[in-house]
Amino acid sequence: MPSSTGYFTTAIAIAAALFFGLWWILVRGGDEAPWLPAGLAASVVLLVALSAREVIMRRAWTRYLLENGINHKSRSHSHGSSRSHRRGLSSSVHSAALRAIQKRSTAADASGSTPEAHLDVAQLCHDYLASSDEVIKSGSFGSEKGIAIRAGQERVRALHKHHLLTWARGQSRALLYEAQQRARTFDKIETATRALDCIDSTLRVYPGEVELNDSKVAIGEFIASVKVAHWVELAERSAFKGHYRRAIDRYRDALFYLNHGMVKEDVRRAGTEKIESEIENLKTRLRPAQRTADAAGPDQKE
């Protein structure tokens, strides 16, 4: 975890520097209330810094949990968890841990639960499997206890897979829906990328899941379509204003993202044909416009 104190100190220092810098500029400009816009700008910087850290740390924490696991338990069984890591699972602790996981699993599967509830159960399953693996490696148990532990592991592995996949599906769908509702292109891409991170994190654990791979392709297609649509819109605006060269360049940017993104072959082919047709039309319109500009002189050129 990065230092919160250092981060906040830096953010406050930047905000203060911005405040005094704007205040000094506005005072020299004769503004009657220079502290008001300067204070507003500094407040915006602090809010953006706080929001950005919250988003980044949440994504990093989720990725860390999925890739490395963490000894995180609920309060009801945290003492039993730490003892099991040090001394191994006794029969009673073993049964209690299984019951606790099953109870949390049933609650997470209930209607109205959030994706985070499934992630919590997956974390509990990860911890149980790590603890039981240590006990099995130590060999300090009888044959009956060993059979019971291995049977419990099989059940917990199934629950781990179920809840991790459910979390990935639910969280990625929620983020993709959120991305579709965003207005700005950057926000759409950033939110959809978070959904893609959820899928990728889970695929590192269960790489053979067809549904997750299909979801990854769908999210990739959405991101590519947003980028292509953005550049096509910019090209159309430039063409409307008569800036044909700029429009052609932006159509070529759209072609780049169309050919390098996760786009189906038929969609890529149809999109490429349409964009290339628009480029040819613009080139046709550009020739007489260029001749007119040449005849009018260099000062009249675009």
Give the strand tally. 0
Any low-confidence stretches, pLDDT <50, length ≥5?
Answer: 69-89
What is the percentage of strand-forming residues? under 5%
- Measured as a percent range, the helix fraction is over 70%
Radius of gyration: 29 Å
H/E element order: HHHHHHHHHH
Mean of the pLDDT scores?
A: 80
For the termini, the CA-CA separation is: 53 Å
Structural class: mainly alpha
Count of helical regions? 10
Whole-number total of structural domains = 3
The rough form would be described as flat
Main sheet makeup? none
Description:
The chain has 302 residues and is an all-alpha fold. It has three domains: 4-68; 75-182; 219-300, Methane Monooxygenase Hydroxylase, Chain G, domain 1 (Up-down Bundle), CATH 1.20.58. It has helices spanning 4-28, 35-68, 78-87, 91-109, 115-138, 143-181, 185-203, 210-240, 244-260, 265-296. The longest helix has 39 residues, at 143-181. The chain is flat.
Condensed summary:
This protein has 302 residues and is mainly alpha-helical. The protein is 83% helix and 0% strand.
List the helices and strands and how they pair.
Blueprint: H1 4-28, H2 35-68, H3 78-87, H4 91-109, H5 115-138, H6 143-181, H7 185-203, H8 210-240, H9 244-260, H10 265-296
Q: Which key terms come to mind for this protein?
A:
mainly alpha, 302 residues, 83% helix, Methane Monooxygenase Hydroxylase, Chain G, domain 1, 0% strand, 10 helices
